[in-house]
Amino acid sequence: MKILFQIFILMLFTFLGELIASVLPFNFPGSLIGLLLLFISLLFGLIKPSHLKEVSSFLQKYMAFLFVPLCVGLMRYFELIKLHWIEIILVLVVSTLITLITTGLIAQRSIRKWVH
């Protein structure tokens, strides 16, 4: 019963995010809005991490399995991917490097701030 309540909490934030996205005058992913609302609720203590512990552990454990439908869906676009694979690889490498460098710089800055 506890895990059902935890799933309800996650679904509630997902629904709120989709609801907000539907009334915005521009396109923005509702799932991202829901995640931001959940993050803010956790940050301000409206929801405690222990309230989501079991369901988050379950979802982390089976995360790879949850990506299978996405990967299978990509096969529908195999011809398009085959035509542009060089550009796709280039974008993936550049965006990964930018993410790694940015994360490293932020981590270094944070460490310096907390150490001094």
From TrEMBL:
One GO CC annotation: plasma membrane
Pfam families per record: LrgA
Keyword set, alphabetical order: Cell membrane, Hydrolase, Membrane, Transmembrane, Transmembrane helix
Subcellular localization, as worded in the UniProt entry: Cell membrane
Gene Ontology molecular-function annotations: hydrolase activity
UniProt-listed InterPro entries: LrgA/CidA
Transmembrane stretches, start-end: 31-47, 59-78, 84-107
Membrane topology of this protein: Multi-pass membrane protein
Subcellular location, principal: membrane
Signal peptide: none
Protein's name according to its UniProt entry: Effector of murein hydrolase LrgA
Lineage summary: Bacteria, Bacillati, Mycoplasmatota, Mollicutes, Acholeplasmatales
Gene (UniProt): yohJ
